[in-house]
Amino acid sequence: MEEARPDTARSSLADRLRGHGGAFRERLAPHWDRRWFRWAAIALGGLFLAILLFWLIFARGLPDAATLLEYEPPLPTIVRDINGQPVHSYARERRVQLQYSDYPPLLIRAYLAAEDKTFFDHHGVDIPGFFGAVFDYVTKIGSGQRAKGGSTITQQVAKNLLIGDEYSPTRKVKEMILAYRMEGVLNKQQILELYLNQIFLGRNAYGVQAAARAYFDKDVADLKLHEMAYLAILPKGPANYRPESPTGHERALERRNWALGEMLKNGWITQAQRDEAQAQPLGTVPPHGSGFDARAGGYYMEEVRRRLIQQFGEKADDGPNSVYAGGLWVRSPYDPKLQEGVTTALRNGLLRFDAGKGWSGPVGKIDMARGWKRELAASYIGIDYAGWRIGAVIDRNSTGAEIGFSDGSAGTLPAGAAQMPYRRAGGPAFNSLKAGDLIAVARNGASWALRNVPEVSGGMMAEQTHSGRVLAMQGGFDSRLSSYNRATQAMRQPGSTIKPFVYAAALDNGMTPASIIVDGPLCVYQGAGLGQKCFRNFTGGSAGPQTMRWGVEQSRNLMTVRAASQTGMDRVVRTIKAMGIGDYQPYLSFALGAGETTVERMVNAYAMLANHGRQLSPKVMDYVQDRRGKVIWPLRWRACDGCNMANWDGKPMPRFGFEGRQVMNPMTAYQVVHIAEGVIQRGTATILSDLKRPLFGKTGTTNGPTNVWFVGGSPDIVAGVYIGYDQPRSLGGWAQGGRVAAPIWKAAMTPVLEQMPKTPFVAPAGIRMVTIDRRSGKRVYGVWPTDEPKPAVIWEAFKPETEPRRSIRKEEVVAQEQAAQRREARAQVRQRTDSDFLQDQGGIY
């Protein structure tokens, strides 16, 4: 009995439903026989079915029009320099967002006349215009022609922002539905603002302000009536009205004059205004860039872009503050004048070094079968130096070669203008030219002459010592030839520029600048597998016991290795790591710069020395603002209240606290800087001594030599430069940091330093300045240091209770100095080499 209950219950429910259905049919049957009732029921059912089908086909899945209340158009990111001036933009769509009130009323009326005269009267859809479009569509079915749109401005906004540009009747109906919904959510001014900021108008310009700049190089507020009318005709098809082509120019004039006539019909301008505007030429300017100098910054701006993408993402899908859509404003410490000086100095240095070595070959190649104009333009290879251009070899015969340029023009390269030897194959460079080669050329009368892009390369960077702000950066000859940034990406052996940090570890572990270290043979047993390793000085030989200072100034390898060995390489590599240079194993060879690092790391480490050992991070961005001006990076950024006051209010002045932690004893850092000042005064970088100002630094030359360096600076700014091949190989036996890198540093930094006061390096609390004999390191009484390049007595910096206890008499100092001068004179009496002669004559660096 229990098992039968469910079936019984189901049977009872079915019986009840049949009973109710039967009763309904019985009540409906008398009416169904009436014809009007049947037709009404069928019509009602058909209407319900039509609504259901309409919703399924058109309305289902449409986006919510309310999302446009929060819509923000993609905007480019703008970078400002150290002076607050915009210098660069990252943009894939040229666009400037304005508010409705920023657009002149006459400009708005021009767009209404050309696109939607009844905009302020309809509720999203112009019914007469819609039926006209339907008729036009039916008449053109099968013709292959595109029917006229008939869309209102509201429908165009719906198409552009919500559903896309699919060409079909279905899209048109969806436009109408969304347009109707939008008119219920947004007011007319909001819809027009979206339209005027979003619409594509050709020349990669999205929005009317960007188009005003692209076509007339004006802001919308400065446009004249005939210019407004031209911009108003572009939404229908910018390619049809290109002023560069005769056909497009003629069409543009005709359509512009039509738009002016429509404005007159609507009573928005007078007859006199229309006649005057129609008499004007188009007045467009040639296509041009975004208004920013594309050459500015180069490697620097690419580094900013990389860091922004790492922080915020690249595309709109990556977040609201993406680089190419977020509309960010970036304040950077980029200094245009210093950047120009760094760029010029590095390029000239590379050209000097490479001079006389022959042609290094083409800078690239293109596929001629795909069309040289298209391929050259798509390569984005260019050059910005002394009027040089990159050209593609189109054809070559015995007398000359035809070359083409990215703007579509062509020229001739005579065989006689390409006779420099090709260093890889021998013979004149002209004989090696092939169709598709991309080469550097310069104007030579009516024709062109071959130029050589140096095969050797390098990187340079300048940084403030108190903040870590990067003022300039150059990562090669030209960023359009190679985006590889040798200032931040190239891992190179630093050579002797690492030595100050080796001695810093020694100073932290009992040594002083006056400590005596033996400059003599040193061999170390490295185990059964590696055997015995013997070290040598760069120039060979040895000098016996010498002070630490002398060893740094003369860059003596044997003294450095001995100091590292006595200190302990584990302590040395810890110091190097703490300064952000690299994480190395405790092998003695790393004390001579065998590890790899970058220009950026070395410059930052030297800046930390000048900053009394306080940690710095290289900054190419001060802060980043979103499109509304809110600072979104760094996260803990705070405005300096009161910093820009016109007058002092009597309250305490704003003070900036230290940012980084202390990574080196400040007294040790100062001792290293004080010793490294001697490198400029009488060491391996005396080429900088004629600047007559407090400077410190260190040269570096690696085995081969494969890389040459100089890093150093003043109390306020530090810069570093290295020169080497991308695939490391010997630069030639004469190449040294003091001969090649230091002159580049000098050329770049001299104009900047001349504008700065001669500020001495300030010693931290606790440092004791003691007069010592420069040769022996012994303390001297009764004698004061002089301004001579190589004085017998100098000031030396000591930590408390570490100054020398033994002293030397004045007459002993004089006798030792005279003996040292005699030894130097004897050492100079030797056979002179070619490199000595070149160095004396100013050098071929």
UniProtKB/TrEMBL annotation:
Keywords: Antibiotic resistance, Carboxypeptidase, Cell inner membrane, Cell membrane, Cell shape, Cell wall biogenesis/degradation, Glycosyltransferase, Hydrolase, Membrane, Multifunctional enzyme, Peptidoglycan synthesis, Protease, Signal-anchor, Transferase, Transmembrane, Transmembrane helix. It is found in: Cell inner membrane. The chain crosses the membrane at residues 36-58. It is a single-pass type II membrane protein. It catalyses: [GlcNAc-(1->4)-Mur2Ac(oyl-L-Ala-gamma-D-Glu-L-Lys-D-Ala-D-Ala)](n)-di-trans,octa-cis-undecaprenyl diphosphate + beta-D-GlcNAc-(1->4)-Mur2Ac(oyl-L-Ala-gamma-D-Glu-L-Lys-D-Ala-D-Ala)-di-trans,octa-cis-undecaprenyl diphosphate = [GlcNAc-(1->4)-Mur2Ac(oyl-L-Ala-gamma-D-Glu-L-Lys-D-Ala-D-Ala)](n+1)-di-trans,octa-cis-undecaprenyl diphosphate + di-trans,octa-cis-undecaprenyl diphosphate + H(+); Preferential cleavage: (Ac)2-L-Lys-D-Ala-|-D-Ala. Also transpeptidation of peptidyl-alanyl moieties that are N-acyl substituents of D-alanine. Residues 461-749 form the Penicillin-binding protein transpeptidase domain. The keyword Cell membrane applies. Its EC number is 2.4.99.28, 3.4.16.4. Residues 359-456 form the Penicillin-binding protein OB-like domain. Residues 824-845 are annotated as: Disordered. It comes from the Bacteria. Gene3D superfamilies: Biosynthetic peptidoglycan transglycosylase-like, DD-peptidase/beta-lactamase superfamily. The keyword Transmembrane helix applies. InterPro entries: Beta-lactam/transpept-like (IPR012338), Glyco_trans_51 (IPR001264), Glycosyltr_51/Transpeptidase (IPR050396), Lysozyme-like_dom_sf (IPR023346), PBP_transglycosylase (IPR036950), PCB_OB (IPR031376), PCN-bd_Tpept (IPR001460). Residues 84-263 form the Glycosyl transferase family domain. Residues 824-835 have a biased composition (Basic and acidic residues). Pathway: Cell wall biogenesis; peptidoglycan biosynthesis. PANTHER family: BINDING PROTEIN TRANSPEPTIDASE, PUTATIVE-RELATED, PENICILLIN-BINDING PROTEIN 1A. In the C-terminal section; belongs to the transpeptidase family. In the N-terminal section; belongs to the glycosyltransferase 51 family. This is Penicillin-binding protein 1A. The lineage of its organism: Bacteria, Pseudomonadati, Pseudomonadota, Alphaproteobacteria, Sphingomonadales.
